[in-house]
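PROTEIN DESIGN WORKSHEET
SECTION A - STRUCTURE
LENGTH: 127
C-ALPHA COORDINATES:
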Protein backbone atom coordinates (compact mmCIF):
# COMPACT_ATOMS: atom_id res chain seq x y z
CA UNK A 1 0.00 0.00 0.00
CA UNK A 2 1.33 3.38 -1.00
CA UNK A 3 0.88 6.36 1.27
CA UNK A 4 1.82 10.01 0.94
CA UNK A 5 1.52 12.22 3.99
CA UNK A 6 1.97 15.97 3.83
CA UNK A 7 2.82 18.11 6.83
CA UNK A 8 4.18 21.53 7.67
CA UNK A 9 1.29 23.74 6.68
CA UNK A 10 0.07 26.58 8.84
CA UNK A 11 -0.50 30.30 9.12
CA UNK A 12 2.30 32.68 8.21
CA UNK A 13 2.58 36.37 7.46
CA UNK A 14 3.36 37.62 3.99
CA UNK A 15 7.10 37.52 3.38
CA UNK A 16 7.54 34.58 5.72
CA UNK A 17 8.59 31.01 5.06
CA UNK A 18 7.26 27.51 5.53
CA UNK A 19 8.65 24.10 4.73
CA UNK A 20 6.22 21.42 3.66
CA UNK A 21 7.10 17.75 3.87
CA UNK A 22 5.77 14.82 1.90
CA UNK A 23 6.60 11.48 3.47
CA UNK A 24 6.23 8.47 1.21
CA UNK A 25 5.78 4.91 2.40
CA UNK A 26 4.93 1.59 0.90
CA UNK A 27 5.90 0.43 -2.56
CA UNK A 28 7.88 3.43 -3.80
CA UNK A 29 10.24 1.37 -5.94
CA UNK A 30 9.95 2.52 -9.51
CA UNK A 31 8.56 5.94 -8.72
CA UNK A 32 9.67 8.54 -11.22
CA UNK A 33 8.33 11.93 -10.18
CA UNK A 34 6.90 13.62 -7.14
CA UNK A 35 4.91 16.77 -7.70
CA UNK A 36 3.27 19.42 -5.58
CA UNK A 37 -0.04 20.97 -6.47
CA UNK A 38 -2.22 23.47 -4.67
CA UNK A 39 -5.87 24.39 -4.64
CA UNK A 40 -7.27 27.64 -3.38
CA UNK A 41 -10.97 28.06 -2.58
CA UNK A 42 -13.13 28.18 -5.69
CA UNK A 43 -10.13 27.68 -7.96
CA UNK A 44 -8.80 24.76 -9.97
CA UNK A 45 -5.95 22.68 -8.64
CA UNK A 46 -2.73 24.09 -10.01
CA UNK A 47 0.79 22.81 -10.47
CA UNK A 48 3.49 24.12 -8.13
CA UNK A 49 6.59 22.07 -8.83
CA UNK A 50 7.92 18.59 -9.44
CA UNK A 51 11.10 16.67 -8.69
CA UNK A 52 12.41 13.47 -10.16
CA UNK A 53 12.37 10.71 -7.61
CA UNK A 54 16.13 10.46 -8.11
CA UNK A 55 16.30 14.09 -6.93
CA UNK A 56 18.40 15.27 -9.85
CA UNK A 57 15.89 17.44 -11.65
CA UNK A 58 13.24 19.95 -10.66
CA UNK A 59 10.69 22.06 -12.49
CA UNK A 60 8.57 24.89 -11.10
CA UNK A 61 5.55 26.92 -12.02
CA UNK A 62 6.44 30.47 -13.01
CA UNK A 63 4.40 31.80 -10.09
CA UNK A 64 6.74 30.20 -7.54
CA UNK A 65 10.05 30.10 -9.39
CA UNK A 66 12.79 31.69 -7.34
CA UNK A 67 10.75 31.49 -4.14
CA UNK A 68 10.03 27.76 -3.73
CA UNK A 69 12.60 24.98 -3.71
CA UNK A 70 12.12 21.22 -3.88
CA UNK A 71 14.52 18.74 -2.35
CA UNK A 72 14.50 15.05 -1.52
CA UNK A 73 15.81 13.12 1.45
CA UNK A 74 16.31 9.68 -0.06
CA UNK A 75 17.12 8.05 3.27
CA UNK A 76 13.70 8.96 4.63
CA UNK A 77 11.69 8.89 1.40
CA UNK A 78 10.66 12.47 2.03
CA UNK A 79 10.36 15.40 -0.34
CA UNK A 80 10.47 18.93 0.98
CA UNK A 81 8.95 22.08 -0.46
CA UNK A 82 10.71 25.10 0.98
CA UNK A 83 8.53 28.15 0.48
CA UNK A 84 10.07 31.58 0.95
CA UNK A 85 8.78 35.11 0.40
CA UNK A 86 5.23 33.85 0.75
CA UNK A 87 2.39 35.94 -0.64
CA UNK A 88 -1.31 35.95 0.23
CA UNK A 89 -1.99 34.41 -3.18
CA UNK A 90 -0.01 31.34 -2.08
CA UNK A 91 -2.85 30.51 0.30
CA UNK A 92 -4.18 27.07 -0.61
CA UNK A 93 -4.29 23.43 0.32
CA UNK A 94 -1.05 21.88 -0.88
CA UNK A 95 -0.97 18.31 -2.12
CA UNK A 96 1.92 16.07 -3.02
CA UNK A 97 1.50 13.42 -5.69
CA UNK A 98 3.67 10.68 -7.15
CA UNK A 99 3.97 9.09 -10.54
CA UNK A 100 5.42 5.65 -11.17
CA UNK A 101 5.68 6.33 -14.88
CA UNK A 102 8.27 8.42 -16.70
CA UNK A 103 6.55 11.64 -17.70
CA UNK A 104 7.26 13.62 -20.84
CA UNK A 105 8.05 17.23 -20.09
CA UNK A 106 4.74 18.37 -21.51
CA UNK A 107 2.79 16.35 -18.93
CA UNK A 108 4.77 17.18 -15.78
CA UNK A 109 2.35 19.93 -14.81
CA UNK A 110 -0.83 17.91 -15.27
CA UNK A 111 -2.47 16.48 -12.16
CA UNK A 112 -3.75 13.54 -14.20
CA UNK A 113 -0.16 12.40 -14.74
CA UNK A 114 0.23 11.50 -11.07
CA UNK A 115 -1.39 8.38 -9.70
CA UNK A 116 -0.79 8.62 -5.94
CA UNK A 117 -1.95 11.55 -3.83
CA UNK A 118 -1.68 12.75 -0.26
CA UNK A 119 -4.48 14.26 1.77
CA UNK A 120 -3.16 17.81 1.64
CA UNK A 121 -1.90 20.39 4.12
CA UNK A 122 -3.33 23.88 4.43
CA UNK A 123 -1.19 26.98 4.01
CA UNK A 124 -2.59 30.38 4.89
CA UNK A 125 -0.60 33.54 4.20
CA UNK A 126 -1.91 36.68 5.85
CA UNK A 127 -1.30 40.15 4.44
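SECTION B - SEQUENCE
RESIDUE ASSIGNMENT:
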Amino acid sequence: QVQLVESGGGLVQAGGSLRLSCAASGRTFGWRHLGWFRQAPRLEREFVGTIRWSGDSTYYADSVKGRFTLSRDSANNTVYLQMNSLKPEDTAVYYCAASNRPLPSATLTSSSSYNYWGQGTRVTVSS
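SECTION C - NOTES
The radius of gyration is 14 Å.
The mean pLDDT is 95.
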